[in-house]
Amino acid sequence: MTPSPRRTAAVLALAALLALGAPAHAEDDVTPLDPGITPLEENIRPLETVSTQGRTTRVTLQADILFPFGSAELGEPARARIAELVAEVPQGARVTVEGHTDAIPYARGNQVLSEERAQAVATVIARSRPDLSLTVTGYGDSRPVAPEGVAGKDDPEARAQNRRVEISYEG
């Protein structure tokens, strides 16, 4: 197989640079990153956070990662991750699944959306762990964990915290 003329030219140019003692990659050819750029890792939110108080474990799932906007449909990766998260729940445990929304009005109602999202998560749990006893509730926007506005200004990050599904169990 004969190399292409373009490949042959590139190999010859590299060989000429090396023969002349020039480095193949000069340091002044590298442009440093803008110090104002935030590393990607700092902007990635985990799907879940887990907290324990006494014997109760609470897994908080970020709704923005689980569900498309205004939807209660879970994608396959979300279903698989939920099944993984409940694999360690003690056998026969009582599990509470609670849905929450932000205070921005939803066309069919925040209460309805929170109930549908909690039920979608509970359905996955029931399929993967039929031994668990489930209680499913939607709270709409009635139980925020963060104020959605400060001094009359909207806080999108706080609203995102309020859009969640929580899974709680003892053990």
Textual characterization of the structure:
By secondary structure, the protein is an alpha+beta fold. It has one domain: OmpA-like domain (60s Ribosomal Protein L30, Chain: A, 2-Layer Sandwich). Helix content is 32%, strand content 22%. The protein is built from 5 helices and 7 strands, in the order H-E-E-H-H-E-H-E-E-E-H-E. The chain has helices at 5-19, 63-66, 76-85, 110-128, 156-162, and strands spanning 48-53, 56-62, 94-100, 133-138, 149-150, 153-154, 164-170. The strands form 2 sheets. It has a 5-stranded mixed sheet. A two-stranded antiparallel sheet has the order 5-6. A hairpin with a 2-residue loop joins strand 1 (48-53) and strand 2 (56-62). The longest helix is centred in the C-terminal third of the chain and has 19 residues, at 110-128. The model has no long low-confidence stretch (mean pLDDT 85).
